[in-house]
Amino acid sequence: MPEKMIYQRTKLQLTKGDKIQFWADMDIAYDGPLELEFFVQLPKGLALPSQRLDPLHTSLTVGEVKTVVNKHTTRSFTGRMGSFEAPATGEYDFGTLLLSSDNSTLQLKKADLVFKK
C-alpha cells in the first residue's frame, strides 16, 4: 500500500464535441515487474464509466529513453493513452489518481497525467 496517495482534480471548460487526449509524462525507475494505472474519474452525471489508463502501454510514445540492466529499468517518455469527447458544452471536473502494483523499488521522478485538447 502506498504511503501517500494524491488525488488530483482538474476542471476544464469544454464545448460539445471537444476531444481531450490523455497523455502520460513519465520519468521512473524500478526493479522487476511493475504495473501502473492512471484512474480517471469522469464528471458525475455523464453515465460513462471511469477510465483506467496504463502509462506503460501507450498508443503513441514520444521521446522515450529506456535502459534495462538485469532487472533494473529506468524509463522516461511521453505517451498517449486514451481520449474523451465532451457530450455537451460546460465545465467538466475530472479526478485522477495514479495506482501501482506493490513494488518497493519504484521511484517516481515524474508521473503526470496531461490533458491535451
Main features:
8 strands, four-stranded antiparallel sheet, 117 residues, mainly beta
Q: What is the secondary structure topology, with strand pairs?
A:
Blueprint: E1 8-14, E2 19-31, E3 36-41, E4 51-53, E5 60-69, E6 72-85, E7 90-100, E8 107-116
Antiparallel strand pairs: 1-7, 2-6, 2-8, 3-4, 3-7, 5-6
Q: TL;DR?
A:
By secondary structure, the protein is mainly β. It is 0% helix and 63% strand.
Describe the structure.
There is one protein chain. This protein has 117 residues and is mainly β. The mean pLDDT is 91.
Radius of gyration from the alpha-carbon trace, in angstroms: 15 Å
- Assembly type of the chains comes to single chain
Strand count? 8
Task: Provide mean pLDDT, rounded.
Answer: 91
Span of the ends, CA to CA: 34 Å
Shape: elongated
Q: Based on helices, strands and strand pairing, what is the structural class? A: mainly beta
- The helix/strand order is EEEEEEEE
* Adjacency order of strands in the biggest sheet: 1-7-3-4
Strand content: over 45%
DSSP helix fraction: under 10%
The main sheet comes to: 4 strands, antiparallel
Query: Which parts are unreliable, with pLDDT below 50 for 5 consecutive residues or more?
Result: none
Helical segment tally? 0
